[in-house]
Specification:
The complex is a heterodimer of chains A (381) and B (123).
Chain A lengths: L1 H38 L4 H70 L13 H58 L6 H31 L8 E3 L1 H18 L3 E6 L6 E3 L1 H18 L5 E9 L2 E8 L6 H4 L23 H11 L3 E7 L3 E9 L3
Parallel strand pairs in A: 2-4
Antiparallel strand pairs in A: 1-3, 4-5, 5-7, 6-7
Chain B lengths: L2 E5 L3 H13 L3 E5 L2 H11 L7 E5 L7 H10 L6 E5 L4 H4 L7 E6 L4 H11 L3
Helix pairs in contact in B: 2-3
The chains are: A alpha+beta (381), B alpha/beta (123).
């Protein structure tokens, strides 16, 4: 408002200035006319009086306009200062009315990003912040709705995997069981029949492995893969796993050696799960290595952890495959061997299991020289 | 030879278990659900009592777990193995009063099962 006054002041001043210029010009014209009359000596007394009067008038006019200029400058200055102050006040008011809703939005966004889908803001204040707040709440509603829907689908999927696994297991038990029964009477089968039954058994076992792996992964995804860690001798786990594998490796002339460091502390693990990882690593070594390969299982202490490694002198893993080796359905080239019967899920599950123990799993390989897989597991104490 | 009471609601699985166990030399009695398990044990008396129970965890009418709970309440302390389709049947954990001697998962590893039965029946 004061700024408006200043503008009006300036306009009025400009008009007065114009009037002043006109008045001065007119005064000079009158004086010049009087001087001409004086020069011609017509009514010299009147002409002199006129000249003096004009000169006096101009002095007055000048002093008036000077005052006017000062006043206007003062008015404009005051107006400007008042205007700026007003603007600043208005602005700070605006900022204050925006700051609280914005702070609330920032805080709610943080909570939402942190996973608290119930985060909402109070809608109010300026129309802009109110719109922003309403939009935020709408987005949070949608996120929450979708999360609920996703949870429901996740539960359905888990349920489905569990049920499917259960339902498939019974017929698989029969198929495998009766095929094994046939093999018990192998001497009564023709060689071709025996081979056929063996294929049935192999494939049934493969199906069972797939089923178990899918079940593990579904549980892992749902955060339901559970472990029961207890102090365990690494040497016992290794011996168990090697015993499980020996039948298969010996058939191919492969040799498994065990090397456990003396005085190795116990590890805090779920024995069944870490045995599963070890068997998986040994199975991979067995399946990807040629006959007569040597496989070495070693356990050593590394700081507060125990490192268990499975090393083979097989074909090794190319670098580009090694980078993705713990991802699902990543499988090495089976070029060398037809024995590879894995599901492509084993290492992904192994990784989940080892990490669930607070451990780490890794792999190194030199193509042509062999591969080494290791896990670091927490030791007692 | 030890007498084993086998319960499963699938006839095929029962046939498989009976055949394998009998080939191994065990005496086999079968039941199609938990109620039949109870009936068989009540009918058997002292002399015909089984040395081991091999019970499917999930069966209609009465599950292996339910039957075992009732048997334990009656004071029957026959060692029992629970057969389950789930890989981690033991994970859920059964109450300790059921005194389950072990869990067998499907598909059945028969060599391991025979070793377990021999161990539990002192054979």
């Amino acid at each position: 408002m004061l700024t408006g006054l200043a503008v009006i002041g300036v306009a009025r001043f400009l008009q007065q200035r114009q009037d002043f210029e006109d008045a001065i010009a007119r005064s000079y014209e009158i004086e010049i006319a009087a001087r001409n009359r004086l020069a011609e000596d017509r009514n010299p007394a009147v002409a002199r009086t006129t000249i003096a009067a004009q000169q006096r008038d101009r002095t007055e006019l000048r002093s008036d306009i000077d005052g006017e200029t000062r006043d206007t400058a003062l008015l404009v200055g005051a107006g400007l200062i008042a205007g700026l102050t007003g603007a600043a006040l208005l602005f700070s008011g605006l900022i204050a009315s925006m700051r609280r809703p914005l702070e609330e939005l920032v805080e709610a966004s943080g909570r939402l990003a942190g996973g608290d889908l119930t985060a909402r803001v109070k809608v109010g204040g300026l129309s802009e912040t109110a719109t922003l707040g309403a939009a935020f709440n709408e987005m949070a509603d949608e996120l929450q709705r979708r999360a609920g829907e996703r949870d429901r689908l996740d539960r359905m999927r888990d349920e489905f995997v569990l049920t499917a696994s259960h339902e498939l297991r019974s017929p698989l038990t029969s198929v495998q069981g009766f095929a094994e029964l046939l093999m018990l009477e192998r001497d009564q089968l023709t060689p071709k029949q025996a081979d056929t039954v063996e294929i049935i058994i192999d494939n049934t076992r493969h199906l069972v492995r797939l089923l178990n792996d899918l079940l593990d992964l579904a549980r892992s995804d749902a955060g339901r893969l559970t472990i029961k860690p207890v102090p365990t001798e690494a040497s016992t786990l290794i011996a168990d796993a090697v015993r499980t594998m020996r039948g298969q490796t010996e058939a191919g002339g492969q040799v498994i050696s065990e090397e456990v460091e003396d005085g190795l502390p116990e590890i805090v693990v779920d024995p069944d799960r870490i045995r599963q990882v070890l068997v998986n690593l040994l199975t991979n070594a067995h399946e990807y290595c040629p006959e007569r390969a040597s496989i070495r299982v070693a356990a050593t202490r590394v700081g507060a952890e125990v490192k268990i490694s499975v090393t083979d002198d097989g074909p090794g893993i190319p670098e580009e495959q090694l980078a993705h080796i713990f991802e699902r359905f990543t499988r090495g080239d089976a070029g060398l061997t037809q024995r590879v019967g894995g599901t492509g899920l084993g290492l992904a599950i192994s990784k989940s299991l080892v990490e669930l123990h607070g451990g780490r799993i890794g792999a190194e390989s030199e193509p042509g020289q062999g591969s080494s897989f290791h896990m670091l597991l927490p030791a007692v104490g | 030879m030890p007498r084993v009471l086998v319960a499963d609601d699938s006839e095929t699985i029962l046939l498989l278990l009976r055949t394998r166990l009998e080939m191994e030399g065990y005496e086999v009695v079968t039941a199609a659900d938990g109620q039949e398990v109870m009936d068989a044990i009540h009918a058997a008396g002292e002399t015909g009592a089984p040395d081991l129970l091999l019970l499917d965890a999930m069966m209609p009418r009465k599950s292996g777990i339910e039957a075992l709970r009732e048997l334990r309440a009656e004071g029957v302390d026959t060692p029992a193995l629970i057969v389950s389709a789930h890989q981690d049947a033991g994970d859920a954990g059964s109450p300790s009063e059921l005194e389950v001697s072990g869990y067998v998962t499907k598909p059945i590893d028969f060599e391991r099962l025979f070793a377990e039965i021999d161990h539990l029946t002192g054979g």
